[in-house]
Specification:
- This protein has 15 helices and 17 strands.
- The chain is of the alpha/beta class.
- The chain has three domains: 127 residues, Response regulator (Rossmann fold, 3-Layer(aba) Sandwich), CATH 3.40.50.2300; 139 residues, GAF domain (Beta-Lactamase, 2-Layer Sandwich), CATH 3.30.450; 149 residues, Heat Shock Protein 90, CATH 3.30.565.
- The strands form four sheets. Strands 2-1-3-4-5 form a five-stranded parallel β-sheet, sandwiched between helices. Strands 7-6-10-9-8 form a five-stranded antiparallel β-sheet, sandwiched between helices. A five-stranded mixed β-sheet has the order 12-14-15-17-16.
- Strand 3, helix 3 and strand 4 form a beta-alpha-beta unit.
- The two termini are 61 Å apart.
Length: 530
């Protein structure tokens, strides 16, 4: 760490030599002057930690030097030494922001060192307090910007932050198209510094599109005449531009003050750069969030398409059973109507046949409605589901296929099984997929055991077949997409089933058992919702 650098100015050489000797011995770096003009030039060229200056000097007094020092180096600590310690001098020193007053001659060397150290410490406290005061609103701005993910609202927040912190009613956010050096206005308020569409050759517009570093232009004072003239023509007193270069986009942030307002200072430009960096991070955050939101939407659409595709695949395999399930009540209705049409039939018998036909039609309507709910892509409203009835319905649909393959079904599902809150068609698809897996695993017939019971906070259903089981090498990956132990299998049935059960807050797992074959355990909580 460098030693504090002190500039000592007094028109008496003996005082400057004494100060230099005492301060150097205490570990300070010291530069001395006896002429105020030379000291002021040095203050312009170099940065000092502390100015130790006499009040009464020829040509320029100490207060004039202090004003120059504070203008060129606002953070410098100032210690005044004088042989005329009056109340008026002390009051003026305080008004000018002096950090300490030291009376000459020094009776003890410790007086000088103590005053210098105290002035530096007080200045540091003021700097720390000012820094905290500056950072506090910046933290608030950063929080508000980073929590907004809508680009349109975010742009308004950015412009409000610029206007509020820089006391300017003019602000704008541009996107830069680097190929033709063109600026596209994304958001703006107040007087804009140029109109690139109406005047593409505007000096400020051309300059701003090519900026690589921050720029401050004040209409009054030193600066490029062409840019100053452009500001005056637009009714502006000052303007600042900060380019924001990101891999995803190049942007430009503008702040301006209209005629009659004070010009911008270097401190304003530093604050503007901080705000611009925060704005760039917030805009990048909003862009990434939008991309993530689009990605999630695409994934959800893909999963929905996968779910529907697996439904249609299951429907194809269930065609014979579905036709059988629908054909039986149709034949019953046809027979009842034929018998009811006989002329010699007693009225009470005819009424019985009509009632039987109506009952079969109701059964047919329920079957068709359940199949429509199963195939409909958007049937995702959770409702109360009786698993016992649902399993009975699914087994009825698949009865013909299971019977033709000599697969005997043992169903142990109590009628008192508590209902669950779920999407009926999705749970139906899980049951169909697991029964089809067992069907494929037993090409030469076998047994399928389906048991259910109320478990803690939900219902547990086991599907156990007497097939060859799942090889241990495949058991860990059995629920991953496109992993199948069946020849010609898609490997999607268990993946879709797993996703459905997980979305309901439940679990689907390959249950270890000593019995031959595979056993899948489904657990669905009572209140599970997708």
């Amino acid at each position: 760490m460098n030693n504090p650098l002190v500039l000592v100015l007094d028109d008496e050489p003996g005082i400057t030599l004494l100060c230099k000797r005492l301060l150097t011995r205490a570990g300070f770096d010291v530069v001395t002057f006896t002429e105020p003009r030379k000291a002021m030039d040095e203050l312009t060229r170099r940065r000092f930690d502390l100015l130790l200056v006499d009040i009464r000097m020829p040509d320029v007094d100490g207060f004039g030097v202090i004003a120059h020092a504070q203008q060129s180096q606002p953070d410098i600590a100032v210690l005044v030494m004088t042989g005329f310690g009056t109340v008026e001098t002390a009051i003026r020193a305080l008004r000018q922001g002096v950090d300490g007053l030291l009376l000459k001659p020094f009776e003890k060397s410790e007086e000088l060192l103590s005053a210098v150290r105290l002035a530096l410490a007080d200045k540091q406290k003021k700097l720390d307090a000012a820094r905290i005061q500056t950072l506090r609103p910046l933290f608030s701005v950063t929080e508000s910007l980073l929590t907004e993910t809508d680009p349109r609202h975010l742009l308004n927040l950015i412009l409000s932050a610029v206007s509020g912190h820089l006391s300017c009613a003019q602000a704008a956010y541009y996107q830069i198209d680097p190929a033709p050096d063109h600026l596209n206005l994304l958001a703006g308020r107040g007087i804009l510094p140029f109109d690139v569409d109406a005047d593409p050759s505007s000096p400020l517009g051309v300059m701003a599109a090519r900026l690589e570093s921050p720029l401050m232009v004040n209409a009054q004072g030193p600066g490029e005449p062409a840019l100053q003239s452009e500001l005056t023509r637009r009714g502006l007193a000052a303007a600042m531009f900060v380019p924001i270069n990101r891999p995803s986009a190049h942007s430009l942030l503008y702040a301006g003050r209209e005629a009659g307002q004070p010009p911008f200072r270097e401190a304003d430009l530093e604050m503007f750069q901080i705000l611009a960096r925060q704005a760039a991070i917030a805009m990048e955050n909003a862009r990434l969030y939008a991309e993530l939101r689009d990605y999630v939407r695409r994934v959800e659409d893909s999963q929905q398409a996968l779910l529907q595709a697996e439904k249609m695949a299951a429907a194809g395999r269930l065609t014979a059973s579905i036709a059988h399930e629908i054909n039986n009540p149709l034949q019953a209705v046809q027979n009842c109507i034929h018998l009811a049409g006989r002329g010699d039939l007693p009225p009470e018998k005819r009424a019985e046949y009509f009632e039987l036909a109506r009952s079969e039609l109701d059964r047919l309507q329920v079957t068709v409605q359940r199949m429509l709910d199963f195939y409909r892509p958007n049937a995702v409203s959770p409702q109360e589901v009786n698993l016992s009835d649902l399993l009975t319905h699914v087994l009825g649909l698949m009865a013909k296929q299971l019977e033709e393959r000599s697969i005997r079904v043992h169903k142990e599902v109590p009628d008192s099984l508590p209902p669950i809150h779920a999407v009926n068609s999705q749970i139906q698809q899980v049951f169909i997929n697991l029964i089809l897996n067992a069907y494929d695993a037993m090409p030469n017939g076998g047994e399928l055991h389906i048991t259910a019971r109320a478990a803690r906070d939900g219902v547990e259903i086991l599907f156990r077949d007497s097939g060859p089981g799942v090889p241990s090498s495949e058991s860990r990956n059995i629920f991953e997409p496109f992993v199948s132990t069946k020849e010609g299998g898609t490997g999607l049935g268990l993946t879709v089933s797993y996703n459905i059960v997980t979305a309901h807050g439940g679990t689907l797992e390959l249950f270890p058992t000593r019995e031959p074959g595979a056993c899948f355990r489904v657990f669905i909580p009572f209140g599970g919702t997708p």
